[in-house]
Write a structure and sequence with these properties.
Length: about 350
């Protein structure tokens, strides 16, 4: 019988199980069997680890966070496909994966992951292993798609955190700094900052100064507002150009990341009581939002369709209003960052939110 494989790779995020369910249910409708490899790409070889997935044993997972298949971040297969900095996968591993896929009669392997994981999928494709990609990251920074699933759930969490910080900041007349994820892009900080009523939003895409941040705090005080909410993306560079959270793991970023530095410096400069909250992996856990469930389900079903139609080496994507696909290479060769002139940034500015790059 024909078979489709699926795996989840890289950091987890809400909606992975919804994709798996989408793949299993839709492939089953088309008469395919389905297998899920365990711990991301690791389960494909030495030792091969997988489980047979059926509509029955994947029932009830739609609203569950995490991934029933497990995941691995930066395992043996770690690779990049950039032209200048291409890192090759060990050919022995590639040969092993090809054997696994052939032995199980897999017509196509659905690889769900972020840029690093999709770079692995691209190298598989070049080697003749049948793959399609599904874009995943809470950071929302993959090009070719307007949204990755997981992002909406992450901003829901960050917005909720800001709502809570708001009341305690107001009660104590404090400055609250919320550090959110987003290693290379400020999508989470921007959207949560707008939705949660942030006063200052610091992004990797917009250089800022301490003077402008402090100016905002003081101008709020002059309007009778004794508290300020600052949202900072972990990947935002400091004014001296130092990146704190950019190149490190989630764990290192939490141990004295940029949020801490921002809070301490504001307190030092203004002698105002300041507190920091690092939201961390709360943003990656828990149930997916309605939007993410719908998007992830569509991604899963569309990935199966690509395999059935023989469109291998493609990645599903959302270019509103359509779910469609692009070659995986298109998605992994560049990051999608916040445009400082985008309508969302302009709207935020129009409301008086400061990005720390001017006194306006
Ligand atoms: O890319 C997603 C992400 O959540 C980033 O925002 C964050 O920097 C990173 O993963 C943390 O990953 P980990 O804790 O797995 O090292």
């Amino acid at each position: 019988k024909k078979c489709i494989g699926v795996l989840t790779s890289g950091g987890d995020c809400p909606g992975l199980n919804a994709v798996i369910r989408g793949v299993v249910k839709s492939s089953n409708q088309l008469g395919y069997d389905c297998v899920g490899f365990l711990q991301g790409y690791e389960g494909l070889h030495d030792p091969v680890r997988y489980k047979t997935l059926t509509p029955k044993n994947t029932t009830g997972i739609l609203n569950q966070g995490g991934t029933i298949l497990g995941s691995t971040n930066k395992g043996r297969f770690a690779a990049t496909v950039g032209v200048s900095d291409r890192v090759e996968i060990d050919p022995e591993l590639l040969a092993g994966v090809k054997t696994t896929v052939e032995q199980l009669g897999i017509e196509g392997l659905v690889c769900v992951g972020g840029d690093g994981s999709l770079a692995i999928a691209q190298q598989f494709h070049e080697y003749g292993i049948p793959v399609v990609g599904v874009p995943k990251t809470i950071d929302n920074d993959l090009s070719s798609t307007a949204f990755t699933f997981g992002f909406d759930s992450a901003i829901e969490c960050a917005t909720n955190a800001l709502d809570r910080l708001h009341t305690t900041a107001a009660s104590h007349g404090r400055i609250m700094v919320l550090e959110v994820m987003g290693r290379h892009a400020g999508w989470i900080a921007l959207h949560a900052g707008i939705a949660g009523g942030g006063d200052v939003i610091l992004l990797p895409e917009i250089p800022w100064t301490w003077e402008n941040v402090c100016h905002k705090v003081l101008s709020r005080e002059s309007q009778g507002k004794q508290f300020t909410l600052v949202v900072v993306a972990e990947g935002a560079a400091l004014p001296d150009g130092r990146g704190v959270g950019k190149e490190q793991s989630g764990r290192q970023a939490q141990l004295g990341g940029i949020g801490q530095i921002v809070a301490e410096e504001i307190e030092r400069r203004l002698q105002r009581e300041t507190r920091v909250c690092v939201l961390g992996h709360l943003q990656r856990g828990g149930a997916p939002t309605t939007f993410d469930r719908v998007l992830a389900t569509q991604y899963g079903a569309h990935a199966v369709r690509l395999i059935v139609e023989g469109k291998l080496g493609e990645m599903v994507c959302y270019q509103p209003p359509d779910i469609m696909s692009v070659p995986i290479t298109e998605a992994v060769n560049q990051l999608r960052q916040v445009d400082p002139n985008s309508s969302a940034v302009q709207a935020a500015r129009a409301l008086g939110i400061s990005f720390g790059n001017s006194t306006a």
